[in-house]
Fold this protein.
Amino acid sequence: MKASVPLMPMLTLALALAACEREQRPTHAPPPASSIGNPSQPAGAVARAHDRYEQNAYAVSQGKTWYRAYNCNGCHAQGGGDVGPALMDATWRYGADPASIYATIAYGRPNGMPAFGGRVPEDQIWQLVAYVRSLSGQLPSSVAPSRSDGLQAGKPEARREKEKIRPEPPSNPGELR
Amino acid sequence: MNAAMSSNEPAAAMQDALRAAGTQAQHIGALWNGTLVLCTLVFVAIVVATIVAVWRAPRADAATRPDTTSLEGPEHRIWRRVGWATGAAVAGLLVLLAGDVFTSRALARLPLRDAVNIELVGHQWWWEARYRDGDPSHEFTTANELTIPVGRPVIVTLRANDVIHSLWVPSLSGKKDLIPGRTATLRLRADRAGTYRGQCAEFCGLEHALMALLVHAVPPADYEAWAARQRQPASEPADPVARHGRDVFLGTSCVMCHTVSGTPAQARTGPDLTHLASRQTIAAGMFPNNRGYLAGWIGDPQALKPGVNMPANTLPPDDLQALLAYLETLR
């Protein structure tokens, strides 16, 4: 029983230190991991790359800043969709996994999504990916933003239900969207 | 401003509440002087009273006991003495209160006819200044450096974009907070030409201490000339290298955050760069605005100002030199 006395404080300390990482603010961007988001990349490498962003509250909140600064809400509104598709719902035309969203932002998609690769730095794209995934509740509530700087209707990202992702049902051929 | 001047170290800007350069700062300086005199008198009186008390205290040495007879009876004329002390304290505080009230009335009485209207927005960690005018074609935006005419009142409308900031240019005026979602105004007038340094005076994050604002007070004619130049869009660069630099600017991440009016770059996330080369400093008063610091800043802002929102830009050397040549044409 004697060993358990220092165990509790040690455990608390370990948990506290682990929690620090979610607020860690790297002032230097990680070295560019070339060809991330390239579909030919092994899935494990991509998963490790985006984990760094999706487990860090600061990265997600920076993503939220870029979302507004780069005028994502010009087409996608606050996630509800407008000219562009909604980002807070369950249907995803081009995949909801981080690598697919990265590819969407970096290389663009047909019918209007511009390619931001080369203009938005790679680490900022990953921050945007993490934030976009938080819109539909894909990130744990300890990481997703819990309040907004401006007025926002509805629940903050941290309190959203996790949407069960499904591909968009095929639309009628010839239907204008 | 010519290139030789902009490549020099910026002139040492005055940041001194005791040397007022404007009527508002003068009133505040007078209040400070009055408070200092009164508090000095009180301090001297207390020190003198303490010394007298110690000097008159009963003496003793190893052989003789101290004479404590005066401590045994009731204190002589105690009510009169306490009354005097209380009266003096109340009177002193009333004088300070009256000084406050009269100073604040004097500050509010600044005549505002023919005022220059500036909307100042605090960002982490820089200042955005929009010069307002009844005629929209006369409005323009600049950053981190204000130019104001000597002798004309200036109405500064204060807003914040992210967190609470505070504007303090000690040589010209008192402090005022910039609070997100609220609008405040600060009125000031520079009566002496010169460059005055201001500083964010409310902790606003990692680089709060390096969020400076330079105010250039210039003769009214110079101000009009400066404002007329600021209203112009950036001109087409004549030099092919600078033209390539413009293409680099429009083709990389610069264009996502900065404005150069007259080009497709119209983003409002970072400082307006339309007349970047006319400013003395970069990074909110941190470095002189010359080619070397600009190159370092573009290449790795995090190394110079950790936490800043500008990302590092790894450009090929030729592109970087062209970009710098282009930025130097933005007079």
Remarks:
- The first strand of chain A starts at residue 91 and ends at 92.
- Residues 32-39 of chain A have pLDDT under 50 and may be disordered.
- Strands of chain A lie at 91-92, 166-167.
- The first helix of chain A runs from residue 4 to 20.
